[in-house]
Design goal:
The complex is a heterodimer of chains A (348) and B (98).
Chain A lengths: L1 E4 L9 E7 L6 E2 L4 E7 L2 E6 L4 E6 L6 E3 L3 E6 L5 H7 L17 H6 L4 H4 L5 H22 L2 E9 L1 H12 L9 H14 L6 E4 L2 E4 L5 E3 L1 E2 L5 E2 L2 E2 L7 H17 L12 E5 L18 E5 L3 E7 L2 E15 L5 H16 L5
Parallel strand pairs in A: 12-16, 16-17
Antiparallel strand pairs in A: 1-8, 2-4, 2-7, 3-6, 4-5, 6-8, 9-19, 10-11, 12-15, 13-14, 17-19, 18-19
Chain B lengths: L2 H17 L14 H5 L3 H15 L14 H16 L12
The chains are: A alpha+beta (348), B mainly alpha (98).
């Protein structure tokens, strides 16, 4: 028997409002299929099934506020009979305020999956905004209260990387071009692999390094607010695949159609202002992480090469680290590795 | 506007509706940077070009990004190439002839 529980989408999340089911009893689900939709301070999120199975009983009801970890549904494992699992488990009425969820006929289920605004009884973006602002405020206040930050900055020459990228993109249609943001993400991820004290979580005083570099990408939403979806295995994906993964997750974030896996298990965060932003950004570490990388605006600036002042496009890269876990030397090493990685874009 | 420019302007408006749905094109200064006025980042701008390529069959290479900064400049650029595609050998403006 498999339990589908409400996942956590961040250390600051305590609960979510259940919106609707996308599956029904007797339905077979694969890993990654959307099981239900919940409304959080980060907006409406599609919750995916983490394991394959057959839906046995739906326990959550639209409108309920449920804590992280609450069992939402029971599923039968391979080889189990779903009706036996449904009969054996506690009745849905055992949940506070719950009544058995009516099984939806497939036609009704299809009709019930409309454009996102209709599906969210918690209200449109404007109504959600105060919740999102409150969540950001809580996370940032906690970070400043608890985490002793140290800050480092380095100006990195990116003329080489941009020239390489421009040459590669010249023969590509818009749909296949690679943006500097993706190239920078790859370089950041590879440099972080070599500075493990910056990647992972601090839980109850103990640092748990993470093997994988899953990068939370700080994304501004039109109309205000921030959301930080994850690009998984950023250090491993080849550049075209990384560009696609990044573009896809940013598109989902902006359309308000993020999935639970988009908000899960990031082990470090990157904030990039892009060319409309300021010269540099000193990030605030997002607990329980232990570092945040910042990249400012790419711009043509004076640069010294071979004893001469030339014009080169550069970017100000910053690193904020948790001083309980790492020292400035580690952060400085990371920035050096990042600069070096961007000097050899063909190896990214 | 020429017919090609009208088609190009409509394609831009339709493409932007999906990227910056709250934007009012009529309020945009067509001479100043479109990206700055609508706060389009590099992904938004690339998505705009992907949409325009799909709708009009016109590709804007990276080397030409500097020529398409404002709404008018982008419209003209697209219209010229659209007109060439539709009637090769004719020039794009109203004075064009065989």
């Amino acid at each position: 028997m498999i339990e589908l529980t409400l996942p956590s989408f961040g250390a600051d999340m305590e609960d979510a409002v259940f919106v609707e089911w996308r599956v029904q009893p007797g339905q077979a689900v694969r890993r990654g299929d959307i099981a239900c939709v919940v409304e959080t301070q980060k907006g409406a999120i599609d919750v995916e099934a983490w394991q394959a199975g057959t839906v046995a009983s739906l326990l959550a009801e639209p409108g309920q506020t449920l804590p992280v970890g609450q069992v939402l549904a029971r599923l039968a494992d391979e080889g189990e009979d779903w009706q036996a699992v449904a009969a054996a488990g506690p009745a849905p009425a055992a949940m506070p305020g719950a009544a058995p969820a009516p099984a939806m006929a497939p036609a009704v289920a299809a009709a019930a999956a409309p454009a996102r605004p209709a599906a969210a009884p918690a209200g449109p973006a404007a109504a959600r905004a105060p919740g999102m602002r409150a969540a950001i405020a809580a996370a940032m206040a906690r970070s400043k209260r608890e985490i002793p930050h140290y800050y480092l900055r380095q100006e990195v020459q990116v003329e080489t990387a941009l020239a390489w990228l421009e040459a590669a993109n010249a023969s590509l249609p818009p749909a296949r071009r690679i943006l500097f943001a993706a190239l920078a993400l790859k370089a950041v991820a590879l440099a972080l692999r070599q500075t493990p004290q910056l990647v992972g979580r601090l839980v109850e005083g103990r640092f748990e390094p993470a093997d994988a570099v899953h990068v939370g990408m700080v994304t501004a939403l039109r109309g205000g607010g921030l959301v930080v979806p994850t690009v998984h295995e950023a250090h491993r994906l080849p550049l075209p695949a990384l560009m696609e993964a990044l573009a896809d997750v940013l598109a989902r974030a902006r359309r308000g159609t993020l999935r639970s896996s988009d908000l899960a298990d990031s082990t470090v965060t990157l904030t990039q202002l892009g060319d409309l932003g300021a010269d540099s950004v000193h990030g605030v570490i997002y607990p329980p992480q232990v570092a945040i990388v910042g990249l400012g605006r790419v711009a043509a600036r004076p640069w010294v090469r071979d004893g001469q002042v030339v014009v080169a496009r550069t970017v100000h890269a910053t690193l904020a680290g948790d001083h309980r876990v790492s020292d400035g030397l580690v952060g400085a090493r990371f920035l050096g590795l990042l600069a070096e990685g961007l000097e050899h874009p063909e190896a990214l | 506007m020429t017919e090609a420019e009208t088609i190009a302007r409509r394609a831009i408006a339709d493409a932007l509706a999906g990227i910056a749905p709250e934007a009012e094109l009529a309020q945009v200064d067509p001479a100043r940077s479109l990206r700055a006025q609508l706060e389009l980042d590099s992904f938004d701008f690339l998505n705009l070009l992907v949409e325009l390529h799909a709708r009009l069959g016109v590709e804007v290479p990276e080397a030409a990004y500097g020529q398409v900064d404002g709404l008018d400049a982008l419209t003209r650029y697209l219209a010229q190439r659209l007109a060439q595609r539709l009637a090769p050998g004719r020039s794009a403006g109203p004075e064009g002839g065989p």
